[in-house]
Design goal:
The chain is mostly helical and 252 residues long. The chain contains 9 helices and 2 strands. A hairpin with a 2-residue loop joins strand 1 and strand 2. The protein starts with 18 loop residues before the first helix and ends with a helix. 25% of the residues are buried. The mean pLDDT is 81.
């Protein structure tokens, strides 16, 4: 999932929307996922997210993110099934007990996780972070330093992921076996790698701070942006669709 938040250029309707609308729409989809406990609705929302990814022209990235979420969901599903003991027993063997309520709750959890994570990642993939920070300042009157901090944190996620991948490759070339199938052993091997990642992140932060000062960061104001971000009909239509999803989540 390297670079999964990098901007993907395109001409889809979501690319042309106001950055604030995309953010609000992603939040609405997340709310609808947590509002509903109906498995059919949650599955429909997940399919809806995949369709949006295809419309945006990032089908491969959407399925790649979904694949990564499925791996995490399998672990969470097993954990929930084993620890929820209430409900009718479906299968029992020695200390192992699986109930219908445990399976339903686990399925709702993984569907909510996937359905609430995908929309934000998709919307960020079709939004320039510079436009997002400028729109937050123009439309929501957020101080620029807070908008800049938010977008910089998002921008650094794929950067740190690439840095971590490079560190792991360097350790693997030195004979350290990080591809073990034992998850506990793998965590014990990866945790020491956080120290070089932290050192690298501090260096990048210092370089970014110096570059921002050289570009007059302290003198940036709300009116410094030359680009305008008006709301159009497609923005209002998208918000209406998001409101409909929330209502469907609560009603169903």
């Amino acid at each position: 999932m390297k670079g999964f938040l990098d901007y993907v250029p395109g001409n889809s309707v979501f690319h042309k929307m106001n950055p604030i609308t995309k953010l609000v729409f992603a939040f609405m989809v997340c709310v609808s996922c947590f509002a509903s406990s109906n498995i059919a609705v949650l599955c429909s929302l997940l399919v809806f997210n995949v369709i949006i990814g295809c419309i945006c022209g990032i089908k491969d990235r959407t399925f790649s993110m979904l694949k990564g979420l499925i791996k995490l969901s399998i672990f969470l599903f097993i954990l929930q099934v084993l620890f929820i003991r209430s409900g009718n027993i479906i299968f029992e063997w020695k200390f192992l007990k699986i109930t219908d309520r445990g399976v339903i709750n686990a399925l709702c959890l993984v569907l909510r996780l996937s359905g609430a994570t995908l929309p934000l990642a998709i919307m960020l993939s079709v939004t320039k972070l510079g436009d997002l920070s400028n729109a937050l300042v123009e439309k929501l009157h957020m101080p620029f330093k807070y908008a800049f901090t938010l977008t910089t944190a998002i921008r650094f996620i794929p950067v740190f992921a690439a840095e971590m991948a490079g560190i792991i490759e360097a350790q693997t070339s030195r004979g350290i076996e990080l591809d073990t199938k034992n998850p506990f052993k793998k965590i014990a091997l990866i945790l020491p790698l956080c120290a070089p990642l932290l050192v690298s992140s501090v260096r990048k932060t210092q370089s970014l701070a110096i570059a921002a000062d050289l570009r007059g960061f302290k003198f940036r104001k709300a009116g410094s942006c030359f680009k305008s971000y008006p709301f159009c009909f497609r923005d209002f239509a998208c918000v209406v669709i998001g409101a409909g999803l929330i209502c469907a989540g609560f009603l169903l």
